[in-house]
Amino acid sequence: MNNPIVTQQPIEARATTGLMVVAKRYLVKYNLLLIFVLLCVVGSIVSPNFATTANITNVLQQTSLVGIVSIGMTFVILTGNIDLSVGSVAAFAGMIIAIFVNDGMNLWLSVLLGILCGVISGAVLGGLSAFLTVPSFMTTLAGLVGIRGATYLLSDGVPVSGIPDVLTNIGTGRVGGIPDVGIIFISIAILAAVALRFTVFGEHLYATGSNEVAARLSGVNTKLIVASAFAICGALAAVAGVLLTARLTVGQPTAYVGLELDAIAAVVLGGTSLFGGRGGVFGTVIAVFMLAVIRNVFNLMGLGSFYQMVITGVVLIIALVLNRIAENRGKR
Amino acid sequence: MTNQEIVSMRGIVKRFQGVTALDGVDFSINAGEVMCLLGENGAGKSTLIKILSGSYTPDAGEIFFEGKSVTIKTPRIATELGISVVHQELDLVPDLTVAQNLFLGRTPSRFGFIKSANMQEVAEAAIARVGGQFSPKTKVSELTVVQKQLTMIARALTIEAKLLIMDEPSATLTADELQQVFRVMDEVTKAGCAILYISHRLDEISQIGDRATVLRDGKSVGVHILANTSQAELIEEIIGGKRGEVATQRSSTAAVEDKTSGLYIDRVFIPGVIDIRNVSIPRGRITGFIGLGGAGRSTLLSALFGSERALREVTLDGQPYDPHSPRQAIARRVGLVPEDRKTQGLMVGRSIWHNMIIAFNKKGFGTAKQRSFSKPKETALALGVRFHDFSQLGGQLSGGNQQKVVLSKWLVNESNVLLLDEPTRGLDVGAKVELFNEVHKIADSGAAVAVTSSELPEVMMHCDTIYVLYEGQVKEFFVTQGLSAEDILHVVITGEVRNA
Q: Could you tell me the keywords of this UniProt record (chain A) (predicted)?
């Protein structure tokens, strides 16, 4: 055997050397990015205000919180699970820090406790699903209802004010023109991407999502991996909740109703498979921005939110279809 | 046996996007005979079947059915001609009854109402003809695998098929069930129907077949009368001598009862399932486990790998060994190649590289890529895995190469106790030989290897020692050298030990 790595499909292998084919392969891989860029071009044509610094930072400000939650959701969906509780968890965390602070607790300690609540709820709901092998759809649906209820109970259903300026400054402040929350979002995205790409944890997460049995028989503690993914998702939901309280300057019990659907839409639009094992943070980030830009362009054009909802739905379908077509092409 | 030709194909060519699957194949089959179709995976067998059954149309060549030139454009035309296929994945509708399935697509009716009584009658007669002992009112989902196959054959009978194509029916059957299917096949051929039989198992082909056509690289390379042809000749023709010698029988006869080398099982006990005692899987040797389905072969390996709960009184190189999870087993450098490659062994949607390193990076936060980069490549080279890119997905490889990737996962991890559960299942003859050649090398390098298989010749050819399991217990122990197949087979089937 002088050369055991023999080309199985010589024709395909030869074709990949062509420049056009390389270009095509990248186009297939990053088709979402292309759609996003096109959307931005359309945006700047239809509205002169689109490409201004003020508008772009505004979009970043609005989209970062959902973005943070979507990154957490990416971890969960990569394992082939789903987390419906993120909206309630975010509201709960945002509420509990408002209450802690009002009770005179140290601000940073209460923020830490708020995020810890997210970790615990994620670990418990995800752990229940993983260790008792019940569908995560159900455990987190229970979380969605139960934790929202707990949030109302904490505050008797009314907003809680009295958030110190230090925190509200983070919610609305800027560094060098860039919103603080945007910086937090991008930093979390980079950290998450590194964790998924380059760590053993990330490797095991993908393996669990790709084939849970094979991963377990290869020594991966798959149940622990799934529970960890949920804990991360819960933590990031709580971070978003704290940041929203910071921005609104009150703990709002009705905050983030329906957030889980926005996050799931962004993750799936970003190319992560609902069956797990395929996708990543990069796609999610692009998808989050894409959805935000659509909304933004409509605002700039002066069209109401009813139009936005319809068009967002249509764009979701178109993007998913295009994505699937590109994927099928790529397979050949 | 009448010699009237049912189907004759001449110069069949089929290309897929530049890849030639069939390259001028000639093939013919006579009424009342069992013609076997042999060849490696990728030799063109399934393409040929799909052309016969109307799923593909050939790019060139002619098909004659009972002497008349025909074009089989759709599966429906094939059915009308009298060609019926029993697929590997039995395509029956699970929620309908047997009778409903028998008449699927041509339900007898009057003014749109189903003629139920008529249906039951004909269905009952058809089931009786194939020797099935179940009511036509049974739901298909409640049938066993063999009953489903019989239903498929009954279906062929009700449409008065002239050619019945059976695609690897034995892959999912036990030996007893297979004999039942064989008896029905005899009946069918006596009635004048021709059977085209596809299987990788040469021993059953010599039992049931009259003639065999061998395909290699999309060409028909020979037609043999099976009574006059040895298995060795067939293997030679199937693989075309391109992969060198078929591995010879192992010759190691070193002392067997060395309890300090490799795995030694005092007892592995799962209540009601297995109770295995005094089994030795020493280093440097290949230990075979054979038995019928349900004899406990796979369960034993799972228990040894920690993926099945069991009472374990086992030592590994003299040290106590009691893994409660695969992770603990892997930490002791034990690896398992599971029974079902696609659902348990391989991550089909992950790249070859990711599949190889998954068991390796157990600890640490560092980047897995940098820590072990050269190793998967070396292993793939050593095992002769054929691929063109490390980023190719596992699912895109052929069966033999997939199994090598699963195996190399443990070599990357430097495992030196390997548990191989039916490692050659679904592989073609050439791939089996290649895989076992590697297993021999691994054993020769000092690893302890345990292999289960349902194919006796394979176990006899490749193992140093053989344990026969019967209903969860070790019935007999053989040293392979100089053994005859009948000696073992008797114990495998009956569980009785003959006095030597």
A: Cell membrane, Membrane, Transmembrane, Transmembrane helix
Inspect the interface and report whether the beta carbons of A200 and B307 lie closer than 8 Å: no
Q: Dump the DSSP string for B131-148.
A: T--S-TTSBGGGS-HHHH
* Residue B500 structure tokens: 């030597």
For residue A207, the chain B residues in CB contact (below 8 A) are 347, 350, 354, 358
Answer whether B330 sits within 8 Å of A218, measured CB to CB. Answer: yes
Interchain pair A199, B345: CB under 8 A: no
Region(s) of chain B under CATH 3.40.50.300 = 5-239, 263-359+381-494
Kindly give, in sequence order, each residue whose CB lies less than 8 Å from that of residue B160, ignoring residues fewer than 6 positions away. Answer: B82
Q: Which residue out of A211, A216, A274 would a mutagenesis test of the B interface target, given it has the greatest number of B Cβ atoms within 10 Å?
A: A211
Residues B13 and B59 sit within 8 Å (Cβ to Cβ): yes
Cβ–Cβ gap B361/A200 under 8 Å: yes
Decide if A219 and B344 are in contact by the 8 Å CB cutoff: no
Q: Distance between CA atoms of B293 and B278, rounded to whole angstroms?
A: 22
Cα–Cα distance between A11 and A229 in angstroms, integer?
A: 41
- To the nearest whole Å, the CA of A220 is away from the closest chain B CA by 7
On the 0-12 / 13-18 / 19+ scale of CB atoms within 10 A, B308 is middle
Per 3-state DSSP, chain B is made up of helix, strand and coil in percentages (nearest 5) of: 35, 25, 40
B358·A216 Cβ contact <8 A: no
Residues B468, A128: Cα–Cα separation, whole Å:
42
ipTM: 0.78
Tens of pLDDT, residue by residue, chain A (332 residues): 333 333 333 333 344 456 666 676 666 667 788 888 988 998 899 888 888 888 889 899 889 999 999 999 999 999 999 999 999 999 999 999 999 999 999 999 999 999 999 999 999 999 999 999 999 999 999 999 999 999 999 989 899 998 888 888 888 888 888 899 999 999 999 999 999 988 889 989 999 999 999 999 988 999 999 999 999 999 999 999 999 999 999 999 999 999 999 999 999 888 888 888 888 999 999 999 999 998 888 888 888 888 888 888 887 888 778 767 766 654 44
B255 at interface of A, judged by CB pairs closer than 8 A: no
Sorted by sequence, the CB contacts under 8 Å of residue A326 that are 6+ apart come out as A27, A28, A31
Q: What does the alpha-carbon distance between residue A179 and residue B189 come to, in Å, rounded to a whole number?
A: 80
Domain segments of chain A as ranges: 52-295+304-316
Instruction: For residue B434, give how far its alpha carbon lies from the nearest alpha carbon of chain A (Å).
Output: 12
Q: What is d(CA A174, CA A151) in angstroms, rounded to the nearest whole number?
A: 30
Is residue B290 within 8 A of residue B460, CB to CB? The reply is no
**A·B CB contacts under 8 A:** 107
To the question of domain B263-359+381-494 being in CATH 3.40.50.150, the answer is: no
A204 within 8 A of A215, measured Cβ to Cβ = yes
Task: Look up residue A152 and give its amino acid.
Answer: Y
Q: Please identify among residues 269-308 of chain B the ones whose CB lies closer than 8 Å to any CB of chain A.
A: 305, 307
- Tell whether B369 lies on the interface with A, counting CB pairs under 8 A: yes
Of B17, B347, B369, which has the smallest distance from its Cβ to A211's Cβ? B347
Q: Does B391 touch chain A (CB under 8 A)?
A: no
Residues of B in contact with A13 (CB under 8 A): 388-389
Q: Which fold has domain A52-295+304-316?
A: ABC transporter involved in vitamin B12 uptake, BtuC (1.10.3470)
- The pair of three-digit structure tokens given for residue A3, joined into one six-digit string: 């050369």
Q: Return the bridge partners of B189, or none.
A: none
CB-CB: which of A4, A7, A218 is closest to B381? A4
Partner-chain contact A1 B384, CB within 8 Å: yes
Which residues from B are below 8 Å from A14, CB to CB?
none
**CATH number of B5-239, picked from 3.90.190.20, 3.40.50.300, 3.30.470.20, 1.10.150.20:** 3.40.50.300
